[in-house]
Fold these 4 entries.
Entry 1:
Amino acid sequence: MLESAVGSVKGKRVLILGAGGAAKAIAFYLASAGALVKIANRTIERAAEIASKLENASYTGLDNLERHIADADILVNATSVGMYPKIEETLVTAEMMHSDLVVFDIVYNPVETRLLREAKKAGVKRRIDGVKMLVFQGAASFKIWTGISPPLDVMESAVRKALQSANSKAKSEAKSEAKSKESALER
């Protein structure tokens, strides 16, 4: 999925934010494909543990992210930062990015996270949302259980439609809640 946006990752410098299960899987895959992986995490020991099991990998804390991003070809957010309901959170702002960066946020709800909006503001042309990763995970599970390869395009369309509907409903509920609070304050 990442390679469809950037081509070969061999020799690419990839900064992965997070050191949980998804970050670990992404790091192992990218390192095996020849990428130069750096794992940044708030708990440096967790990042170090993953990096120690990989070739061409290093680790760091979340301080000096701007410097690490400046050196990166690809930025992967493998944290839950920015996921619903905390949709305005991000570890990286537009000022920290360069336009040649590829930004992949594995968060899928909302589809367009604050990180992806910040990347757009920074002039980043290649931005990848988390829907494809969710779809590929679901498709792999479906195949394991049924032996059938599902149609990825149909699955992706269904996921995007469901997320759009859920996000519209959440926005409507938030507006209604805000109006109720406003009315209560006026009394």
Entry 2:
Amino acid sequence: MKKLISIFLLITLLTIMFAPFTYGYFHEASPIKWHEYNQEAFDLAKKEDKPVFMLITAIWCYWCHVYRDETLHQPEVVDYINKNFIAVFVDADKRQDLTRQYLAGGWPSTVIFSPDGKEVSRLNGHIRKEDLLGYLNKVVKFFETNELPANFSKKELILRSYKIVPGSSELKEITKNLPSIMLQNYDFQFGG
């Protein structure tokens, strides 16, 4: 019995010791040229006149792994991001300050910054390869030409951005329709 307990404890200890190495997302080995979130990354974006593609992810997050495997590590996406963006990797557990500041509602979160470091948009969750490439292409064209591509509104450019302050006409519209908005979004099954 003592031997069985010793073996169990040894296996548990080894699992705990090596779990971070087996399940972690080693962005250093990723085909995307990731940078840490720091001033050098944003200086490089400004110097190269490229927008910043920031990923907030966590090793325990299922959808983060799906996003990485099914979208971010696809050759077309890797090439596009490496060519047109400065990619910044944020581990949500190590940089909780950035997670609190930039999380788009859940993990993974993709945040786009202009070459001069201003936040442009936040995207929440796993994004399909085609959708991500289409969106990033429009963002790059916007920064290259300073004009929105055809069939692409400013609202789409700042998709799910939480830093937009509505104007007085939007506030009046929201206030006028607030009861209806609340009823449409009310969860009758679980409340709230």
Entry 3:
Amino acid sequence: MPCAERGTPLLQWSCRLLAGALLWSGAVCASGPDKHGPALVWKTEAPFEDVKEDLVSAIEGRGLVISYVSHASAMLDRTAEAVEGARKVYGDAEILLFCKADLSHRLVQANPHNIVLCPYSIAIYTLAGKPEEVYLAIREPYTAEPVYAPVVELLKGIIAETIGE
């Protein structure tokens, strides 16, 4: 039985207050990560622009510079007529690219072919017709290269900060 349904009225009130505060902060609305194909995906419920602003702040707050923003939904919308059977998948979809110098140096010093693991990326998107659900996703971690583990922790930390986990 949930705490808001048992105990004294004061305890019930306290549980409802805590649940309301968590819901307001976005912590209850966030979930994940869930594995979808080659992606780890988190979901939260907030306006896309607010989540994107929080994502940018979480990246830049670590002293990182976003080197490129891929406007994925705009590209797919622009090219849809040229692809038979194409349908609108996303409301908004962007991919933010960035690196962290010390981690990138460790990656390529371990194996110069690890350059394909840079830059790091976090996708932020909504699905068509569902603007209230915002997704954040990263590629499934490359576990064959142990030196990549700190990159995965960095990406997960940025997402956790963004969605209030």
Entry 4:
Amino acid sequence: MKINKIIYLLIATFILASCTPDGKEGTTKSEKTKSFVSEKYKFEIDFPRAPQEKTDKISAEGMEIEYTLFSCEKDDKTYFVSVNGFPRAVLAVTSSEILLSSAKAGAMSQLTDAKLINEKEIKYEKYDGVEIEVEGKKEGISTYIKGRAYLIGSNLFQIYEISLKNNVNIKKTNKFLNSFKIRK
């Protein structure tokens, strides 16, 4: 189905864009907590510093899909949340399993010799999600990616930390991933 290829390409684009943050400065609630709040997408997360925000659209099959990327870099690591709002036409013909599987495939496509280290189904409240850990090479450098993806309503949220393989701190990575919250 063509729509699945579009979703895969869209998700891969988010991850690729995360490696080169660009855009306007995000806002934080407090420099002490570094808690970032997106009023538009109704989420908050604790970035290590104020993220940059970039919004773009991809047109495919007569549909326009908007995505927004919030990202920052610190200590040779890239932290990001990407949000894409899918039109009802896409959600009507695509299961959450396909969207979540595409998120995993998109993360793996960014590395050469990518190896899936861990994958598990997770939930955020009542919403389906997936958590992955991937190792591989980015531009010849050993790289580690850990992230989560959730389909919440019509939005796919992807939360990732990308680091050098020799610079992984699982405790800090999990702290970042666990800080993601949907605001009501």
